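Hey, quick one: can you model this chain's 3D structure?
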Amino acid sequence: MAHGLKTSYKQFIDNFWATKILEDFNRYSGDVKNEFLTVNANFRIPESDFISNYHSFKDKLERNGVVINFKNNFLKIISENLSYQNWIDIEEEYYEQLKICATNDETKKIEKLNSDFKQIKDELEKYLKQEYRTRFKPTDIQNKHSYYNLLRIIDSEFKEEDFTTEFASGKPKNILFVNFNYTPIEGLYYGPNAGIDANSIHIHGELFDDQNPIIFGYGDEIDDDYKMLEKTSIGQNFILENIKSVNYLQTNNYSRILRFINSDLYQIFILGHSCGNSDRTLLNKLFEHENCVSIKPYCYIDKDGKSDYIDKYINISRHFNDKHLLRERVVNASDCDLMPQFKT
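Sure thing. Here's the predicted structure for all 344 residues.
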């Protein structure tokens, strides 16, 4: 999003309704029928009353005595909730629905939930590919000199105040990008052109790479309810098919990260990640590992001038069992930098 790509959940869901459902409805009026829902409206809409999103669509139909018949129940849940802004909200909603079904021993509903969730995941992948191809121009980023040099700080002298334990000063021997997104955008910031020698791991998969499939689901094995899911899933492994840690073993990405963090002391820079619970298993491993000496989150200032540092800190704190380590390792707000935003 900092690069100008429209990849937030809200942008995706509004685009989904605009292109998958409402484009035809606005053009023809009347029936809508696809793999997600059916609508039998049979009335025309004036061009001046063009419908652009789910809630305006629903309101227009209800005023005319028409209802939306959802085939995909998960789509209905996430479309209805106006508070959902981020992808972690959707992953957490999936997890909540999964726990409800498992608690009530409703395995058929879990199969339907997983099927519905896969449809959303497939639409997300299509959307991100289109968004990346049509909107992203690497030269635009490279020409923004200040942004293109964002990560040159990694290759510079570490600030002494970044660390609360002894750590050798100077340039790091190795740099690893752990990309939780699906786009290959981090490639701009390393290699000969960027002047930074680094490696990259797309832990959740990568667009346009069939050997590294997309992982979309939930990843909190530390949660007490996860033990209940493990017990429920005996003989019914499909219950856990969207748990991230289960899917990590499709590739060697996770083991490569482990090799890196086991090899030497390291500092973590957090760029754009909210550090929500949907990635808790991996983040706990990275944050509490004995070789981790510092965690530096980059902050965002909203339109009202408020920093998200406290929100990030609270999210980070949930991944620590040892709160003393938390306070030792996380860099304080005054020494954290802002996450630059790409301006067109």
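One thing worth noting: The radius of gyration is 22 Å.
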